[in-house]
Amino acid sequence: MLRSVLMAAFLCAAPFMAQAATDFATLNQSFPLLPLLGLTLLILELALPTKGALGMVGLVLFVYGTFGLADHPNPSLRLSMPSIFLINALMLAVVGIIVAITVRGYLSRGAEEFELVGRTAKVVDWIGDNRRIEIDGQLWKAESAAILTPGQTVRITSQKRLVLTVTPENSL
Predict the structure, then answer these.
(1) From CA 155, how far away is CA 35, in angstroms rounded?
(2) Distance between CA atoms of 118 and 39, rounded to whole angstroms?
(3) Which residues contact 137 (CB under 8 A, 6 or more apart)?
(4) Mean pLDDT of the region 14-18
(5) CA-to-CA dists, residue 50 to 3, 44, 61, angstroms
(6) Phi, psi (deg, nearest 5) at residue 117
(7) What are the C-alpha distances in Å from 15 to residues 12, 19, 37, 92?
(8) What is the CA radius of gyration of the chain?
């Protein structure tokens, strides 16, 4: 539900933000809005499953927008180059830490976490090396001493990393 609300809010606000960014007399005057739009996209990336697309665009807009503030026509909006480098370095560090934590979480979560031994599954393919079963909507590689057919119910007897050993359900 939250994802739907955030996506709807973004889709409603994005045209207005883009219009506001292009309505200025010159592109140089819209640079203060680019970092804000970039931050908005980065925050939306945390809530929406876009595989990093919004985050990458947001990061590019943030960096590009902050560098554009170095020679902004309005003196109160100008930033010095050292402060721009510091702001961007901090932003890249925060994004890098979030990415590292995310990747580490995916890599540390092995197949053992799923506790599949003893559960039943359906055979999807069983031809040559293409031996796959489906459990909870996920496809897993499988091996068995028995000849199995697609649609057959099997019981998982062991697991070695991402390969499951199965036996036909009626043979237990």
Answers:
(1) 54
(2) 47
(3) none
(4) 62
(5) 11, 9, 17
(6) -60, 130
(7) 7, 6, 11, 27
(8) 25
Q: Which two tokens stand for residue 143?
A: 């091996």
CA distance 138 to 114: 11
Task: Give the residue carrying structure tokens 């031994």.
Answer: 117
As a whole number of angstroms, the distance between CA 78 and CA 105 comes to 40
**pLDDT tens-digit map of 29-63:** 666 778 888 888 888 887 776 777 888 888 888 88
Q: How many residues are there in the chain? A: 172
Query: pTM above the 0.70 mark?
Result: no
Domain spans of the chain, in order of start: 2-108, 113-171
Nearest to 120 by CA among 147, 143, 152, 162: 152
Model pLDDT for residues 93-142, shown as the tens digit of each residue: 988 888 888 777 666 655 455 678 889 999 999 988 889 999 888 889 99
Topology adopted by domain 113-171: OB fold (Dihydrolipoamide Acetyltransferase, E2P) (2.40.50)
Q: Where are the alpha helices (DSSP H) in the chain?
A: 2-22, 33-47, 53-68, 81-108
**Selection from 9, 69, 11, 7 nearest residue 35 by Cα:** 69
